[in-house]
Amino acid sequence: MMISAIVLAAGKSTRMGQQKMLMPWGNITVLESVFQTLQNAGIEDIIIVTNLEISKSISNYQPSGSAQDKPPITINNNGEMFASVQAGLRALKPSAEAALICLGDQPQIEEGSIRSVCEAYLKGTSSLVVPSYKMRRGHPWLVAKPFWGEILAMEEGQSMREFLNMHADEIEYINLDTPTILQDLDTPEDYLKYKPSM
Fold it and tell me: Which of 83, 124, 156, 175 has the most CB within a 10 Å radius?
């Protein structure tokens, strides 16, 4: 089955004080690290939902050694996560059967976490697969095609947390032994705490 990834990267980075998606992460940027990890985990179809400012900076990005064309970029200038998910779903290829919902500010996410979520979906019967660390939901989580129409029909003001809570009994949780599924970069303190040492 075709599993695509939707990378949510349209936020305004207000708490960071600068555009966090473009901040250095090792030899690349935060957003590039997320993209690269998804590719290394075997995800070939990746859509980045971002704003105009970031799209101009990453329009020529193509990971070295990759045969894939540069990733499709969908613009969502209002920055809201829920609207970004909807925009990403609308941009998926018709062949897509499931979507990984990924955070663009989660560069420390591990290949193994991504693979575990995808494998659980492929082996199981659930259309919702969510990674968990110490009873807390993390990212990336997976939503299959049967739920996309419902998400697209949800109204402004609703949230993905609300959607997951409505379908709590249908979620297959994958318990992972890594806090990286919970860690994102919201503040300068987060960045300094998690960034790789050079």
Answer: 83
What ranges in the chain are assigned the alpha helix state H?
30-40, 52-58, 81-91, 111-123, 148-153, 160-166, 188-194
Q: Between helices 111-123 and 30-40, what is the axis angle to 10°?
A: 50
Other residues' Cβ atoms within 10 Å of the Cβ of residue 8: 28
Return the SS3 of 18.
Answer: coil
Please state which CATH number belongs to domain 3-192.
3.90.550.10
| The pTM of the whole model exceeds 0.85 | yes
Please state, in angstroms and rounded to a whole number, the distance separating the CA atoms of residues 128 and 50.
24
Cα-Cα end-to-end distance for the chain: 38
